[in-house]
Specification:
208 residues, alpha+beta, PH-domain like, 2 domains, eight-stranded mixed beta sheet, 4 helices, 8 strands, acetylation
Length: 208
């Protein structure tokens, strides 16, 4: 089981939440954290996770999850409601950068994702989730590549694939309907021809 699947099962599923996406990160600038603040557990991996509740009305949140060295379990740390997110900074709109910033009402973090592609995927899901679940005060996305905001995003590609499949199925049904229509017309013509032949044959005089 991958780390993200384990996080979804261990952290979010018990609370009846569904994890939409996650990105493994490291801080760009090291914070001086007291030894006791980490529980004295040493090094750890950090994941920024996006989740929604299964119950209506749907609530979306961003959660910081950690996995300490030598442990197979995950620990929920900080959490913010999606409404608290004010700005998403992609750092470089022209290149594949793994760096990004998240600005909340009461927090600001500077991160580096494990890969630029993982950051891009997370940003696409985050942007889509903001558009879907937030009606007021949506966060500002700055210095982001155009594919994150739309265009070539995986979400749009998936939607395009579904649309294409529906169009192909519809076209196939239309073509089938046209073939059936032509067959019915041909059958009707044959029926009329047979009927006319029968009537003509019936009218002809019979010679014994």
């Amino acid at each position: 089981m991958s780390a993200k699947s384990a996080i979804s099962k261990e952290i979010f599923a018990p609370l009846d939440e569904r994890m939409l996406g996650a990105v493994q990160v490291k801080r760009r600038t090291k914070k001086k954290i007291p030894f006791l603040a980490t529980g004295g557990q040493g090094e750890y991996l950090t994941y920024i996770c996006l989740s929604v509740t299964n119950k209506k009305p749907t609530q979306a949140s961003i959660t910081k999850v950690k996995q300490f060295e030598g442990s197979t379990s995950f620990v929920r740390r900080s959490q913010w409601m999606l409404e608290q997110l004010r700005q998403v900074n992609g750092i470089d709109p022209n290149g594949d950068s793994a760096e990004f910033d998240l600005l909340f009402e009461n927090a600001f973090d500077q991160w580096v994702a494990s890969t630029a592609s993982e950051k891009c995927t997370f940003f696409q899901i985050l942007h889509h989730t903001c558009q879907r679940y937030l009606t007021d005060r949506k966060p500002e996305f700055i210095n982001c590549q155009s594919k994150i905001m739309g265009g070539n995003s995986i979400l749009h590609s998936a939607a395009d694939s579904v649309t294409s499949a529906v169009q192909k199925a519809s076209q196939a049904l239309n073509e089938r309907g046209e073939r059936l229509g032509r067959a019915e017309e041909k059958t009707e013509d044959l029926k009329n021809s047979a009927q006319q032949f029968a009537e003509t044959a019936h009218k002809k005089p019979h010679f014994c």
